[in-house]
Amino acid sequence: MERVYCVLEPGQAVFFHCNTLHRSDQNRSPDPRWSLLCCYNTKHNNPYKSSHHPFYEPLLRVSDNAIKQMGVRLFAEKTQFWDPKGDKTVGAGKS
User: Fold this and answer.
1) What share of the chain is helix, strand, coil (3-state, %, to 5)?
2) Using CA atoms, how far apart are residues 43 and 30, in angstroms rounded to an integer?
3) Angle at CA 89, nearest 5°, toward 29 and 58?
4) Spacing of C-alpha 81 from chain mean position
5) Neighbours of 52 (CB within 10 A)
6) Mean per-residue pLDDT, 52-74
7) CA gap 81, 47 in Å, rounded
8) 14 CB-side CA count, 13 A
9) What's the rounded Cα separation, in Å, for the pair 82 and 52?
10) Above pLDDT 70, what percent of the chain?
11) What is the number of H-type helices and E-type strands within the chain?
């Protein structure tokens, strides 16, 4: 595929389709570069491999009193949260 360079002026923005491969080169200016990453995806476009990004599953409808029944068990022991140190998709373990 064609490589396209996108040079922006301060205050400009660029938006990518969720399947577009993209990257940003090193900031060699004396000024900091700020970025805001907002990732949106449709339910029919699951990640192609397992990572910290969720796979989409249909939501199940529950009864109105399900929240009361759940109580404080939501964050009970053994709850697993994403740990970037062990996730190869964010560069963990590279030498």
Assistant:
1) 15, 0, 85
2) 41
3) 120
4) 14
5) 14
6) 75
7) 19
8) 13
9) 6
10) 78
11) 1, 0
Question: Can you tell me the distance from the alpha carbon of 59 to that of 63, in angstroms, rounded to the nearest whole number?
Answer: 13
| CA-closest candidate to residue 23, choices 37, 9, 11 | 37
Task: State yes or no: pLDDT of 74 exceeds 60.
Answer: no
In our burial notation (b when 16+ CB lie closer than 10 A, e otherwise), range 58-87 reads eeeeeeeeeeeeeeeeeeeeeeeeeeeeee
Tokens of 55: 């796979």
Taking only the tens place, the pLDDT of each residue in 20-37 is 888 888 888 888 887 777
Q: Which amino acid is at 27?
A: N
* Mean pLDDT, rounded, of the chain: 76
Instruction: Return d(Cα 85, Cα 90) in angstroms, integer.
Output: 8
